[in-house]
Amino acid sequence: TFLVSKMCIPHLKLSDNPHILNLAPPLDMEAKWFKNHVAYTMAKFGMSMCTLGMSAEFAGDGIAVNSLWPLTAIDTAAVRNLLGGEAVAAMSRTPQIMADAAHAILTRPSREATGNCFIDEEVLRAEGVTDFSVYAPGATGALAADFFVPDEVLERTGTKLAGTFS
Description:
Layout: H1 2-12, E1 19-23, H2 31-34, H3 38-57, E2 64-69, H4 77-82, H5 85-89, H6 96-106, E3 117-119, H7 120-126, E4 144-145, H8 151-157, E5 163-164
Helix pairs in contact: 6-7
């Protein structure tokens, strides 16, 4: 994240609306995120720290640096093969929600939206989306929360989830 971002800076400075968007969670220094997977947590939070530091470093250049993270599990190969198979996939949203949220962020003026650790659903709600069932067409019950979603985000969104990875 650090190296690729740094290498892109000269090119981003030439853009009319330059953005870096990391797939990284909000920083939530709770022991529960570290206890079973310290290395993974350090890697993801390191990306979040790049977002915070680079957003300040490049603000004067108008380069937005933000992170985006899913509220719920996303139906990916990792979920299907490593984190619970079909059972967890059935409690997950499609990757389209992250694509739609990323588009919403990347089309904002870069000088007005930087230094944020966005959550996909909150981004889309701010864009006027109210029907999230399109992102989980096969779900029949509550969805699974993703890793690293702070409790205050769950409370703020009023989200009732089936559980979380930990």
